[in-house]
Task: structure prediction
Amino acid sequence: MASKRDVPPRKTLSKENLLIRGVPVEYIEGTLRDYVQDDEYKDFFKKYLSNLHLMYEDRVNLCLYGANGTGKAQPLDELVLTPKGFVKMGELKVGDYVIDEHGKPTKILNIFPQGMRPVYEVTFDTGVKVRCDKDHLWKFKNRNMISREQDWQVDTLENILNRFKIKRGKGNNIAVPISKAVEFNNDKELPIHPYLLGVLIADGYLSGITPSISTTELDIIEKCNELIPENHYIRKNSNFNTSWNIGCKGGKNLINKHLKEMGLKVTSSEKFIPKEYLITTKENRLELLRGLMDTDGCIRKSGSFTYSTISNQLKDDVVFLANSLGYKTVVTEDKRAKYSSGVCFNITIMTNDLIFSTKKQIERYKKFVKPTYKKHIREISYITDVRYIGEEECQCIMVDNKDHTYVTRGFIVTHNTFLSSLIVKEGYRLRYKTALITMQGLIDLYFKPNKTEEDWERIKMIREADFLVIDELGKENFTKSGSNINLLEETLRNAVTKGQVIIICTNLPLEGEGGLYHQYGASIKSLIDGSFVKLEFDNSDYRPIHLNKKRAIKLLRGEED
Result:
C-alpha cells in the first residue's frame, strides 16, 4: 500500500477549470432530455460532465455527496428480453444486445455487480411479478399524469412509493410502459405458414393420423388451402360436417411431418406454440396471431378481444406472442366442470389493431371496436402491489440508448443506471478507459475466494481505468467495516499512485454526531478530505438527480468555495 508521501499533490477545481473549454455538449444534452426538464439542472450536468477531460488533465477527484447511486439492480435470475428471447440477468455479458422500450436491440455497454441486496417483488395488473431493489429506476406516470397527458417521469421504486399511493380509491395509480412490438433476430423460413399453424393449433385435430381443421367458416379453409404445400389438399371429412382433412396426393404428408417434428401431435390440453414461431419476424408473429384469433378468438360487444384455450402452456405462449407485438394482455380463468382440463384460460388482448382476417370477425370489428377505445390502457401496466421478499445477488446493466431502458419479465419496460452511467458514457465518448463498480461489488469481487477469469478481467479493468467510479459508498454490508475501510483505502491510494481519477458517489452521512454508521463515515471522510472536491446534492427533491440547485450553480460560477 502506498504511503502518503508517495501520493502526488492534487489540484482542486478553480474558477477557470469549471468552465466548458470547447467540449461539445450535444451528446450529454441528449442523454438528459427525458430526465431533467429544468434548464438550470440541465446546464449543471452539461458543465459537470463536460469537465471530465479537465478533471483528467488536472487529476481532480470528485466526491458526489448525497447523490443517488446507480443501484438500479435486479436479481441474477430475473429475466431480461434479448433479440433471441428472454435470458437471465446473470447470463448477460458486455457487448450482448437486449431489447429497449421501442422493441429494438440495444447494446450492453457495461455490467455492474451489486452483490447481495434487499429485493422487492413488484406485481402488475397483468399478473406479472418483477423483482428489483428499492433503488431500481422506473419510468412511470400516475393517473393524474395520464389524464393530463403529461410526460413520463423517472424515479426509484422507493421514491415512487413515498410520493404516491399504489391504489387511489378503487383503481390502481402507478403505471409503467409496456414494450412496443419487438424486433427479434430470427428471419429463417418456417416449416408451416404461421397463419396455417395458428389455425391448426386453435381449431385443429393434431393427434390423429391425418391433421384436420374444424370450422364452419369457408374463408378460413380457402385461405389455408392457399398456404399448404404443392400436392396437398384440404377436403371435407364426410363423417363430420365441420371437419376438414389435410391430405397429400402422393408421397409424405408434409404438414403431418412438420407437426410431428415440432412435437405438436398432441391433444388440446397439451398444445403449445413452437419457440421458432415466437422468436421470428413481426410479420410472421402477426400472421400466427391472426390464425389463432380467426378460429378460437372472439370480439366481444365491449370491443375487447379474447382468446380461449384449455392448455396452460398455450396460454403462456399466446400471452408471449401478443406481448411481443406490443399488446397488453390479462388472463382470467373459467373453472366450470365442462372443461376436460378443469379450467379454460381467457386471454384478453388489448389493442385496436386488426388481428383478425375472416369476414365474420371483420364485420364484428367494424361494429364493436371504436377508434379511441381506452387507448391509454393498451400501452401501460399498473402496479398493484410491492412487497419485500429478501436478499438476492444482483447486478445492473448500462445500455446504449438515449432512453436508458430495457425490457424485463412480462415485456415490462424498466430502467438501467443513471448518474454514474452518464459519467461512464461520457468517459467512453472522450475515449478514456472508464470503470464503474459499487462499493459492495468491489468488496464481493476482492474477497471472493475462488475468482473466475471474468472476475480477474474485471479487476484488471478497475486497475487500468483512467476514470474509476466507486458508487453507493456506504450502502455496503457493514459486518466487515474494518476490511471495507482497508479495501477502500488501498483502492484509493493505488488509484492515485497510478494517476487514475476517482469519482465517489455516496449517500453516507460523513459528518454529524452519533449514528450507526458515524464511525465508518468519519473514517471514509478522513480518506477523502483534502484529496476530493465535494459536490453536495439534496435528496429532499423528488427528481431522479437530487441536487442543491442554488449551491451547485454558485459553485460552477465560482461564487462559492
In short: Residues 4-70+418-556 form a domain with the Rossmann fold fold (CATH 3.40.50.300).
